[in-house]
Amino acid sequence: MVSTAEALAGWAHDYEPTADDRELAQRSLVDTMAVTLAARRDPVARIVTGLSEAARWAAIGHVLDFDDLHLESTTHISVVCVPATLAAGGDARAYLAGAGVMARLGVALGWQHYASGWHATCTAGAPAAAVAAAVSWGLSPAQTATAIALAIPAAGGVQRAFGTSAKSLQVGFAADAGLRAARLAAAGATADPSALDDWLRLVGGDPARVDLTGPAVPGGLAIKIFPCCYAAQRPISAVRDQLPEPVDATRVSSIKVTTPESSVHPLIHHRPGTGLEGKFSLEYAVAAALLDPRPGFASFTDEAVTRPEAQQLAGLVESTLTPGGDWLLAGEVDISIGLDDGTTHHVTLALPPGSPDRPPSAQDMAGKIADCGADLPELLDGLDWPRARALLRQLLSARGPA
């Protein structure tokens, strides 16, 4: 009987991208490079100087929490698979093979795995990075299955890290573990591919849910418009885009939010005190949407989060979480904003901009890249995989950011 690792390895080895797959890969490359280079001055860039390329690039790429997301698996696919592919010298096909494995493993792990507190980007990411490296280096299906199995001991990460630098660091660990596993498999290491099936069951997944049909990344990828957790994108968009006119934040007397409990599962910081914690706070997301014309990088600094007016608004938020849901876009968010004159503004939203069924426009993408750095539109114009690798090596060297 063929193990899940062998089936995934065979799929990855034989996979040929379609035109739509290649378009997704190019957008993912540009988006991931933009958010990675935007973070090159972040303290994490200094902290990771002693790590491998894959680990450094992935950790820096994730620290702003501005990278894309596969909603069905609740995994940040590109921030693992782009750095792993670039560090291994791969191309779009290698990225898509790794991304496809990550999406399918994430779905097999299921919502309950994520809801239990696992960081699925890391658990699904380590085996996926092994596949991206294996395809980059031309490993055989048997070697690729071995690499997947060798990545399993490092397939870990927990949500308690959210709001600290540990979140981005453990993403870096996952990317590094995948390359290490592929390198060992190429050198002749052995492992039982059935380890993946056993591991899936141990952490609450189901190997039977791995589906090898469909495009490289079934369901597509969600692009973030704001630099914070994806669970905060919908509340921010609801307040910004659905109100008929801007609300004077000084007149707000009450804020009531009703949403399925799964849709805010990662938002664990109810009274954030730092910029990183603010990225994982429903209360602060609503406050920032009311205070800032466009919640961007400046909205998620320590100083912005601790603004008295932001703290006051966040303290007004009353949340009603309806039971159920099995993903971050379950149902819709419903927000009522009461003013001091007794009037109430009521907004609802199901799909935020950037979600796969409401994809970002070319203008959205251009605006995001420009927000990430004044020099990036020119640097990333016509970007390909070899040039992306050279840029990261130039601007994020082992000695620290250039």
TrEMBL record:
PANTHER family: 2-METHYLCITRATE DEHYDRATASE, 2-METHYLCITRATE DEHYDRATASE-RELATED. Residues 226-374 form the MmgE/PrpD C-terminal domain. InterPro entries: MmgE/PrpD_sf, MmgE/PrpD_sf_1, MmgE/PrpD_sf_2, MmgE_PrpD, MmgE_PrpD_C, MmgE_PrpD_N. Gene3D superfamilies: 2-methylcitrate dehydratase PrpD. Residues 58-196 form the MmgE/PrpD N-terminal domain. It comes from the Bacteria. Belongs to the PrpD family. This is MmgE/PrpD family protein. Transmembrane segments: none annotated.
